[in-house]
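Support request, please re-run this one:
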Amino acid sequence: MEAGRRSRGKKKVLIVDDHPVVRNGIKGYLCDEEDMTVCGEAEDVPTALAAVEKFKPDVVLVDISLGGRNGLELIEDLKKRHPSLPTLVLSIHWAAIYAHRALDMGASGYVEKGEDPDVLVEAIRTVLRGGTHLNREIAEKMLGQLGGKGSCNPVDVLSPRQLEIFSLMGCGYGTKAIAERLHIERSTVESHRTAMKETFGIRTCAELKIIAVAWSKMENEMRVNGNTHASAGPPASASASLTEGWKSSLSAGEGQ
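Re-run finished. Output below.
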């Protein structure tokens, strides 16, 4: 009874990983948090889908490597069945390779298993608020891969209204929420998104959201570090030569 009272009001986390030791470790760490609790576990896609129906989690932690179908397929299934349920990838695989694919499938963030446990906790809180979690490395890479268009700085290539919409997309706002916040029609938001896709040379809104999230990540970090012009873009080390490879590796997805 006491445990039930303590868990009441906490956000429910479902862990999907094929290693029991990993699931137990995550559960042991999250049990100390006051605002979240582990509601269930699963080791593969079928048991994960059943667990979502049974436990009604607020967020799902997903590993990429699972028995049978992989975590990316699970994320895609959950996006179709439960569009408002956020998923957060927690994987041993290098984020620079898999993060953009996970986000394109519908994930709300990506955390490598080698990162500090506190990073995972904050990532969970971020996606529960409707945001998207990326580490600095992958954010830099995603922005650097826009270099093939010339300037990769959104401030240089977007109109003031487009930049407002772009920034809100990076903070996790959808079309309806952006329209309400800016007091404009949804069709106006959609028209600006179409124009931004053309500006960046991309095809889908999923890709546009990934870029917006990466830029927002860099913007916020540079602001925290005291740089007044966070929009100066990523460092020169972020290679623009990967642009075409990155674009071709993204699935076409849905332009919604």
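The chain has two domains: 2-133, 147-247. The chain has a mean pLDDT of 79.
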